[in-house]
Design brief:
Strand content of chain B: under 5%
Radius of gyration of chain A: 19 Å
Oligomer: heterodimer
Number of helices of chain B: 7
Number of strands of chain B: 0
Radius of gyration of chain B: 18 Å
Number of strands of chain A: 0
Order of helices and strands of chain A: HHHHHHHHHH
Shape of chain A: globular
Largest sheet of chain A: none
Largest interface: A-B, 30 and 37 residues
Number of domains of chain A: 1
Number of helices of chain A: 10
Helix content of chain B: over 70%
Structural class of chain B: mainly alpha
Number of domains of chain B: 1
Structural class of chain A: mainly alpha
Helix content of chain A: 55-70%
Shape of chain B: globular
Chain lengths: 321, 221
Amino acid sequence: MDSIVVSPYGVQAIQVLTILLGAPLVSGFISHAEGRMQGRRGPRILQPYYDIIKLFSKETLVTNDSSWVFLAGPIVAFACYLTVPLLIPVLTTFPLPLGFSGDILGGGFILALAGFSVALSGAESGAPYAQLGASRAMTFGALIEPTILFVIFAVALITHTDLPYALSATIRSSASQMVRPSHVFAAVAFFLVVLVDTGRVPVETHSGTLEFGMIDEARTLEHSGPPLALLKWGSTMKQLILYTILINVFLAPWGLASTGKVSSVVLAVAALLGKAMVVGLVFAVIDNLFSKLRLFKITEFIASAFLLAVLSVLVFYAGGG
Amino acid sequence: MSSLPSTYDGVAAGLSLLVLLTEFAMLRAPLLRSQVRLYAFQSLVVTGLALYVAASKHIDELFVLAGLSLLLKVVVVPSLILRLLRDADTDLAGSSVVGSASAILIALVVAAFGFFAVGSLHVNSASLPTSSLAIACAIVLVAFVLIILRSDVVSQAIGFFSLENGVSVASLVVASGLPLIVDIAFLFDLLVAVVVFGVIMRVHHTRNATLSTSDFDRLKG
């Protein structure tokens, strides 16, 4: 089996498939673990797959007032989430052919486009809560943007490029890269960004049904059937994409395939999903330890993330990072 | 400049940054008690930094200093202030003029100024990375921001004490071989400040039944 080598394009396709098919698994694992920590049995780990399959067989309802944008939004977002795994190191240490078609900023833009199209689609429904969610998601998305930029600056300063592959390689190159203050702070800031972007606890409760506290969840309230399936699937994919960037670019870029051999690619898929589940466990613990912040306190949370990202750049310039 | 710092430099700069972060956390803390605890934690990190420098650079006097600062700044001063607070039974810090997100942004701008001001001086130290001096300067400046923005005696006292922590970090950077007597003199300065602030807190609270400094303009004979 070791003699079979997957071509780089093949590996790239497997990267997309890993994110596509593995995302509901990671998401299901997190809700299961969360349930266990709260003394419940929790949903089955495979539950998100069943949900998605069920939704695909349901009919699509569209309000009278909404236009084609309402239905196009989920599809555009899903396409965006399928594009990002081409640009980031999901499985390999070596850059793949299409990996250079966009840098970390390009990936960020595509993720932002996905968020924008979901918000637009929610706003198009004309329902008050979906519009509230869309408007809030865009507001907090805009507030977290400076933090993301400063994290990217820190990455760019450390590696002299803004390619995610390069930072991943830099961190693997030496253990002292891990204790570099600028790297530690950028990583923690990115961790907080992931908390905000995946709508986890200090910012938003995942399982709540109270519309007034909702941000991301509220956007999809009016969708049904296959578009809702795409939205749910898309949000699990977004979560896994952000986890992958956090793991493979910042925290633990080990266990990646260094060749295209079948065995090492399979191992890399397993390693990625395993690491994503460990990160998911951390998020589940945070979910159980903290309570949701009041909506107007979220700016303070975002300000702390921004503080970390800026300090990371500053300490680099001061020569200690 | 962009070359990889050594592990020693990285850890030292990381610890100094932790001190700076605690300073920012004080800016955010709404409870007076949590502010005092943050100060104790900050002093603990400064002690850790002193120990780390002492152990890696074999400067024995720093061990003594670390022990003294552990005793005074982590145990004695915080417990004194906490006792004063218990008598005053006030929990919340005086609301600052700006919200805490804006306060953090203001402090960030001030800290960036400190970083670049020190960065342009090109000071080199044998014992700690240059960035620690920049961070120490930022700590002092953010402590000033805390003193200026908060309007109660306890926050201002804590701001002043944590300013001393910033100075400690700076003294570790610039001269970790500073004669022990000078360092101890610094610590006793701190004790004098504690006494002064303690008296202010007591007198202000017994006369006006508040810890807020906004009433200070009414202190007429």
